[in-house]
Each structure stands twice: as C-alpha cells, then as structure tokens.
Design brief:
Layout (H helix, E strand, L loop, with lengths): L8 H7 E3 L10 H7 L2 E6 L5 H10 L4 E5 L9 H18 L5 E5 L4 H10 L8 E4 L7 H15 L4 E6 L2 H4 L4 H13 L9 E2 L1 H6 L15 H14 L9 E4 L26 H10 L2 H13 L5 E3 L5 H8 L3 H12 L5 E3 L6 E3 L4 H14 L1 E2 L5 H6 L6
Parallel strand pairs: 2-3, 2-9, 3-4, 4-5, 5-6, 6-7, 8-9
Antiparallel strand pairs: 1-12, 10-11
Helix pairs in contact: 3-4, 4-5, 5-6, 8-10, 12-13, 14-15
C-alpha cells in the first residue's frame, strides 16, 4: 500500500518533494500505525466489499474495518460473520493492492472463529478491532489475539477502542486508563493503535456534536481525550487515533464556514474556490478543523464513515516543506541549543522539539513531503483522472 498511489507519476512529481513510501504487512508497527490514516468503517453485512476494494484504493483508502458490532443489528451478527469470511476470502484471492483490513468483533471468541474459517485467507487480515475495551474485559481479547498469532504465525494486530463510562466518568477515568495501559503494555508489539470511540462516549450523556463543532468543543469529551493522549502517548509506546466524523452531506448551518478563502484564492488553481464551496457544502470544513486539532494534540489518523472523508484527512497529514525543513534542522542540532528556522519565522529549540521532529519525519516517510510551493489545497484539487 502507498498513500496517494492514484496519482500519475507526473502529478506525484509536481506535488511532492519526497513521495510517500510503500508499506506492507512486514513493515514495522509504528509505520503501519501512522499509515492507517483515515480508517473507513463498513458494516460487516456489506456483500460487495471485496468487489469495491479497487475503487476504495483509487479513492485513497489505506485502512478499512469490517464491523460486526455497532454497525449491524443484533439479529444480523451470524449473517455478518459469514459475510466477512466470504469477503476476506475473495479479497485474498483477488490479490493486488489493498488497504490494511481489520474486523471489529463483538466478543473475543469471534477472533479464533474468523481466523479458523479463513484458513490461508487470513493473510488478507491486518488484525481486529476490540470494542468497549476496559481493563476488566480487555484481557480476553488480547489473549485471543495472542493465540491466533501463535497459531498462524501472521503479524495480526489488535486495536482496542476506548468508549465506555469508565473512560469518561471523572472519578474512574485516570485509574481505568492507567490499568488499560498496563494491560496493553504486556502485549505492546501486538497493539497497532488505541482508538477513541467518541460516539459511544457522547451517547453516555446524550450528546452529539453538530457539524459546526468539533469533538474538542465538547468539554466532557475533550477532558477524556486529553487524558487518553496524556497516558498513552507519553513514551511513544502507543499511537492514538482520532474520533469518528459523522457527517457527509449538507446540513443546516448556524455558524460561518471554518475554511478561509485565501488558501483557495490562488490564480494557478482556478477551480479552488469551487472546491472550497464543495467542502463546505458537505460539512468537510468541520472535519478539516477537527483533524488539525487532533494533530496539534498528538493524535494520528481518523475514523471515517464515508470515502469522501479520506482525501481531506490524508492531505492534512502530508508533511509540508516547512515542517520537513524544521524537523531536519531540529534533529541536526545534536549538541542542543536554539536557532531560527530556515523560513525565518519561528524558533527551533532542539531538545524540546526533538520528539515532534522525529514524529514528523516518520509521517513524512508514510505520507510524503510537499514541494515548497504546494499546500493541502493542491492535493484536494488535483484530478486523479487527468493525464
């Protein structure tokens, strides 16, 4: 898999100073975690999933989840499980470029059942998503994962979802998160990322953000997210991914759009103003703002429910030329100290900025580095059908 693989060689050369690098199941865990990008959730009952993979790859999808939990009704679980096995067998037989594929199970027993039924087709799987993960229940999921890893020799990964009351309630949150971290630490190399289930967290208090607001605007949820990032990313052992964005078509707007006109007003991109209007019309300006806030807080990647969300998320994770030069300057200052940036617009202090710089260069490897005269608008504007 390689991000922006739908671009022609000419388009890639025009946009990127350093192209995104390919990764696969043998890549190291941190590279795969960053490479998740916008993870597209699909109900496990979707019967044309394998046939649609080619289209999803062309739309930029690099990770996908077939969901057997909240995305399907309780009476559809058995049919969903059979369908997931059918789709993964077809995907394995198809070969070729495919996203990282996960199954979101309802209970630990499904991990062994699915892998056993798939037989050699289990190679099409990257791993499993564990819903409503807690310190009390999570051990069963992790042991089930360890069993299939030993039995198959495949590098299957788990992604626990933090979305229960223990994570949100102020009196239990920090002890619960510390207990979950300790549990995951025993299985660290099998945990690809820690996911945030914001919809379930909001549901505990009957909340739902509008497209005018980000998840960071909801005080109850913001406090939980801050503690999750605080506890799980403090030493780079785990990657935390962003909450789902729920909107994909026009809704009633209350506030002004959240995208300035100036980045879209370039004379060399005559279609950019229309692009801005289209992003706003589909409530993607809210998604863009939420991703920017995710990144600023140390979160990598996003859960999405529509293919139209994928390219805006990925465009924002591409490293700009300015970020890249700042990161190189920072890591080149081996003796410590402070200097001005190459762009002469900010301070670089080597020791405090070192982890940021290392994270930026890892992101650059996976998502690429833009040329100094290109921005995320160019990535959204490019027509993948053009020669």
């Amino acid at each position: 898999m390689r991000h922006f693989s739908f671009l022609t060689p000419e388009q890639g050369e025009a946009l990127f100073q350093h192209l995104p690098q390919a990764f696969d199941a043998t890549s190291d865990r941190r590279t795969l975690a960053v490479g998740l990008g916008a993870t597209l959730y699909t109900p496990g009952t979707r019967q044309n999933y394998a046939r649609q993979i080619g289209r999803l790859v062309r739309e930029g999808v690099a990770s996908s989840v077939l969901c057997l939990e909240d995305a399907i009704s309780d009476d559809a679980v058995a049919d969903g499980e059979r369908n997931v096995i059918t789709q993964l067998r077809a995907l394995h037989a198809r070969g070729g470029e495919a996203p990282q594929v996960f199954v979101r199970v309802r209970h630990p027993d499904q991990v062994a059942t699915i892998v056993k039924e798939l037989e050699e087709s289990a190679a099409a799987l990257t791993g499993f998503v564990f819903p409503k993960f807690t310190a009390a229940t999570g051990g069963d999921y992790l042991e089930a994962l360890a069993d299939v890893r030993r039995g198959t020799g495949l590098p299957l990964y788990g992604m626990p979802v933090l979305e229960t009351g223990e994570v949100l309630w102020s009196e239990t949150r920090v002890p619960e998160l510390l207990a979950v971290r300790a549990l995951l630490a025993d299985h660290e190399q099998a945990v690809l990322a820690v996911r945030i289930g914001a919809t379930d967290l909001c549901g505990l208090y009957g909340l739902r953000r509008s497209p005018d607001l980000t998840v960071w605007d909801l005080a109850l949820i913001r406090e939980a997210l801050a503690d999750i990032v605080n506890i799980f990313t403090r030493d780079d052992a785990f990657t935390v991914t962003g909450a789902v964005w729920e909107y994909f078509t026009a809704t009633q707007r209350l506030f002004k759009p959240q995208l300035r006109q100036s980045p879209f007003g370039r004379p060399d991109l005559p279609g950019a103003p229309a692009l801005r209007y289209d992003l706003i019309r589909h409530d993607l300006d809210g998604l863009i703002r939420e991703v920017v806030l995710d990144k600023a807080t140390g979160i990598v990647g996003k859960t999405v429910i529509h293919p139209s969300h994928v390219r805006p998320v990925h465009a924002l994770y591409v490293v700009t030329h300015e970020e890249f030069t700042d990161a190189q300057t920072t890591l080149g200052m081996t003796g410590g100290g402070v200097t001005g940036s190459t762009y002469s617009n900010k301070m670089i202090e080597s020791r405090p900025h070192a982890r940021w710089a290392a994270h930026t260069l890892r992101r650059a490897e996976v998502f690429g580095v833009l040329r100094d005269d290109r921005t995320f608008v160019d990535l959204l504007h490019v027509d993948e059908a053009s020669p």
